[in-house]
Amino acid sequence: MSTLLERVKAAGLPQHVAVIMDGNGRWARARRLPRTVGHEAGARAAERLVRFVGERLGIQYITLFAFSAENWARPKAEVDFLLTLLDRFIAEHLQEFVDSGVRLRVVGDPAALPKSMQKTIARAIDTTRRGEKLDLTIALSYGGRQDIVRACRRILADVAEGRMTLQDVDEDAMARRLDTVGTPDPDLVIRTSGERRVSNFLLWQSAYSELYFTDTLWPDFSPADLVLAIDDFQKRERRFGAVREEAG
Predict the structure, then answer these.
(1) Is 245 a residue whose pLDDT tops 70?
(2) Does 1.10.230.10 match the CATH number of domain 2-143+186-233?
(3) Is 232 designated active site?
(4) Whose C-alpha in 23, 47, 69, 163 is 20 to 30 A from the C-alpha of 223?
């Protein structure tokens, strides 16, 4: 992998990579293990990826889709386990984040999360606020449609209270009120497990993102798989709706 790694780094890395981490349950089922074991393996894969990005790759922004707004519909026992696992992941890696220059952000609906988890998140965000090497965003209780609705409500409140007029409402005004304000739109969105959809993830932000789908289940997704995804990304021509003029 070292040769390909150096090549993709020399070719120019995407500024922001977002990942839909899918396939924990299927990974466990294939091994006749409980789904909880799959989620634990998925957490280790996330840890492995974040460490690789920060230490060897050098991408500035990475967003991980950890728990969707729709995931609340799963059995309560699984939801409780997932949230406890995510809470533990943030708490146990907090010092490592600080030492590695990682700044943590969380997007989604924090009010829906357990109070203890809200405290863990608030402490982690405050503790890592000076990190400059890697911006790590974790999407928790997040949905792209819900994000857009929250932004619309913020705009309506600003209009109603006289802080802006209807003529001020444009794409920039919308972007400034999304959960992800301050983070550039993702250049590359990766989804694991063979599914070919974005599942309500960063709908506004990914309007011009390159999409990469892999059959690899999330617990098996390795740094080498990420490098392959970036290599594929670099081979694409990104025109953003424009047409390149031909010479001659």
Answers:
(1) no
(2) no
(3) no
(4) 69
- Residue boundaries of the structural domains of the chain: 2-143+186-233
Give me the sheet containing 210-213, strands edge to edge.
102-108, 134-142, 61-68, 16-20, 188-191, 210-213
Which one of 22, 87, 185, 225 is the catalytic residue?
22
Question: Active-site residue among 71, 200, 220, 231?
Answer: 71
Per-residue pLDDT tens digits for 194-212: 999 999 999 999 999 999 9
Q: Which residue, chain included where needed, has tokens 């708490």?
A: 91
- Look at the alpha carbons of 219, 220, 221, 222 in this order and tell me if their dihedral is positive or negative: positive
Query: How many residues are there in the chain?
Result: 248
